[in-house]
Amino acid sequence: MEKLTIKDVDLKGKKVLMRVDFNVPLDKETGKVSDDTRIRAALPTIKYALDQGAKVILMSHLGRPKGQKIPEYSLKPVAERLSELLGIEVKMAPDLVGPEVKKMVEELKDGEVLLLENTRFHPGETKNDPELAKELASYADIHVNDAFGTAHRAHASNVGVAQYIPSVAGFLMEKEISALGKVVENPEKPFAVIMGGAKVSDKIGVIENLLEKADTFLIGGAMMFTFWKALGYKTGNSLVEDDKLDLAKELLEKAKNKGVDFVVPVDAVIAQEMKAGVEKKVVTMEEGVPEGWMGLDIGPKTIELFKDKLKNAKTVVWNGPMGVFEIDDFAKGTEEIAKYLAQLDAMVVVGGGDSAAAINKFGLENEVTHVSTGGGASLEFLEGKELPGVKSIADKGKKKRRLMIAGNWKMNKTNSEAEAFARKITQLTGGSDEKVEVTLCPPFTALPVVVEVVRGTQITVGAQNMYPEDSGAFTGEVSPLMLKDIDVDYVIIGHSERRKYFKEDDEFINRKLKAALKHGLTPILCVGEVLEEREKNLTFCVLENQLRRDLDEIEANDVQKIVIAYEPVWAIGTGKVATPAQAQEAIRFIRELLAEMYSEEVSEKVRILYGGSINPDNFLGIIVQPDIDGGLVGGASLKESFAKLVEIARKIAL
């Protein structure tokens, strides 16, 4: 999966709301950070944003205060340590949201950092409260998600915020998605999986998902004894999930049927107690674990067997230790496997949680391809689940239809101005391409000159209006034949200004659509509600009425040729913009309505644009929405910054 990253967006002068993972241990006596590993891990993303001239607002949780403001879970010690690591003062907010926090955000200068107080001091965080998310989003232009450890949770600070401002991946998040995504989606063969830990039940989803892809499966940790017992061997006092014995048998059978080499340990290190210094010995699987003893590590023969099974692997996923590695007496299995993986010529990805702690204990974290920062998140990712904190990050290159950036110049620019500006836009954009279509819609008087300027490029030209007759006594009007004769490609029909100022109704708009289609012009049909209609929750009703009347008696083949532009009238020329969520909701409704009126196939082919006070600062949040295929741009199309909209669209479309 490809996601937009912090490098894909312009950060200069922008307020960046960054979700990081500063859930670090604090020394009980001094109150200071006792392990700053997670803070250091976030430094590259933070420093990059600062170097780009951004104002950085950081969010993180710490501990589990359960919605209460508990002083010992304050992020103040984190702010102090981060200040030392960055070499600049990190301002500390007294809360997550509120008037005082808002004032601190507003006063923030380029290159400065503000750390908000613990996100989990607010009960709305874990509930993904939309009001909390909306307030957080109001602080910034862009959201950067760099906290993979919380990606399996839909919280206000990671998922909720992304409903209001565009969310992109930080460097840590990008690395996690890339590494885990590769092993889940397209691992290089041979592909080996090492699965350890205490319980089979904790890893069922991962085992079943990776059995579909792996060549070799190695089982270690306490879960091995559930498999031993399922195979009929003695397990003594070892940890066994008796209710999962049938499942263990099913997994063994499934692996056999799929041709997966599913390897259960052939020996184990056992003891009577789980503590250092006790008597221990090695037993084979056939001997089994005697009563009063428990298995606490894989044995020496298993270590050698596992190494032999791994020697040719090109991709390895390791999740879960081989034994009770926290106690040195039972750490050899985990240590030996970790050391072997470190020297293996393969892509080695270590799951989070205990696996990460184990490889860190042996100082090998930098010797493997990737060590995940997320325990639960990495497990769910390996299960093949779609993590809400990853899903909410904007996709790159997943648009189903060719994007369109159409500039409606309205009653602006003389012929000479139009010619010069069209040349400039052609130069700045490099023309259209197969992913993004650039369309210029000048006044009638400038149509011929703009057509000539863009001739030989892929830029298309549209008219702002037309009359639904071929010719006749219609003073001041222009026919579809006249437009077609000068090589115009598109025509805007039903724009809210035509509906409002010139009293064009849906019946008249329907006639225009039919006339345009008859003569090979592609209509850009505009629909949308006024403010009063939105406030009365009539948006969907208005859109349905307009579309059913506008498209009356127009066949499916012709509807597929039409471009629809959703333009909330209250957002046109007002500076107000529908939130990304509002725009997506309305356009999704239009797409579903088309499916109902015609078919899913037709619905999926029709391009639907958003129009309403679009500019380079707000366009990213709009264009990343899954059902939005571009923008019908008004005022911003009269400036050279129109080219920036095209640039933003290309990053999404690539």
3D architecture notes:
The chain has 654 residues and is of the alpha/beta class. The protein has 27 helices and 23 strands. The strands form 4 sheets. The protein has an 8-stranded parallel barrel, surrounded by 5 helices. Strand 7 (191-195), helix 8 (204-211) and strand 8 (216-219) form a beta-alpha-beta unit.
Q: Indicate the radius of gyration in whole angstroms.
A: 30 Å
- Highest CATH level, the class of the largest domain: Alpha Beta
Second-tier CATH architecture of the largest domain: Alpha-Beta Barrel
Number of strands: 23
The CATH superfamily of the largest domain is identified as Aldolase class I
Helix coverage percent of residues?
Answer: 25-40%
Neighbour order of strands in the largest sheet:
16-17-18-19-20-21-22-23
Largest sheet: 8 strands, parallel, barrel
Mean pLDDT: 94
Given the C-alpha coordinates, what overall shape results?
elongated
Poorly predicted tracts of residues: none
CATH topology of the largest domain, by name, is TIM Barrel
From the N-terminal CA to the C-terminal CA, the straight-line distance is 13 Å
> Number of helix segments?
27
Please tag this protein with its features.
single chain, 654 residues, alpha/beta, Rossmann fold, TIM Barrel, 3 domains, 8-stranded parallel barrel, 6-stranded parallel β-sheet, 27 helices
Secondary structure: elements and pairs:
Blueprint (H helix, E strand, L loop, with lengths): L14 E5 L17 H15 L3 E5 L16 H11 L3 E3 L6 H9 L5 E3 L7 H4 L3 H8 L4 E4 L10 H5 L6 E3 L1 H15 L5 E5 L8 H8 L4 E4 L4 H7 L14 H14 L2 E3 L3 E5 L8 E5 L9 E5 L1 H11 L4 E5 L12 H11 L4 E4 L3 H8 L8 E2 L3 H8 L5 H4 L11 E6 L6 H15 L6 E6 L5 H8 L5 E4 L16 H6 L4 E4 L2 H6 L4 H13 L3 E6 L3 H5 L3 H12 L5 H4 L3 E4 L13 H18 L2 H6 L2 E4 L7 H5 L6 E4 L8 H12 L1
Parallel strand pairs: 1-2, 1-5, 2-4, 3-4, 5-6, 7-8, 7-13, 8-9, 13-14, 14-15, 16-17, 16-23, 17-18, 18-19, 19-20, 20-21, 21-22, 22-23
Antiparallel strand pairs: 10-11, 10-12
Helix pairs in contact: 1-2, 8-14, 9-10, 11-12, 16-17, 22-24
